[in-house]
Amino acid sequence: xxxxxxxxxxxxxxxxxxxxxxxxxxxxxxxxxxxxxxxxxxxxxxxxxxxxxxxxxxxxxxxxxxxxxxxxxxxxxxxxxxxxxxxxxxxxxxxxxxxxxxxxxxxxxxxxxxxxxxxxxxxxxxxxxxxxxxxxxxxxxxxxxxxxxxxxxxxxxxxxxxxxxxxxxxxxxxxxxx
Length: 178
Known about the structure:
The protein is an alpha+beta fold.
């Protein structure tokens, strides 16, 4: 993951078997932390002498959780719903020491204001392929940047991992990113 490289961490990427269930009924911050903890626990079972970092990101618009669209139609619906509105991006992350079983789970929230989008702009963006598989149907670090009027909070949280909060939490595991 490029963000972890950016802060100088040495790591190995290991996919989790954990299922992302966004319909649990939990508060969005608790849901984000719960999903990241499940991912971290799933990976930690396979390793000794490792510190596992896992994260989960999704959008929240008017109380509704926006996951990753699976189809172009779902992506269009999400983008149309967010057009001209402000939504939240919530990322939960967990750091878990595989040997000790000690973990820290936190969540961060960033407010994102979309500009008013035309149907043609939405179609063009969906045709780019970028929205598929992205939380909230956009990537702020890509073409999705053109959809956003402003943000309030951590940019990297919208990308998918709040780097400052992560670096501070890693200190509890005697891991310094600087």
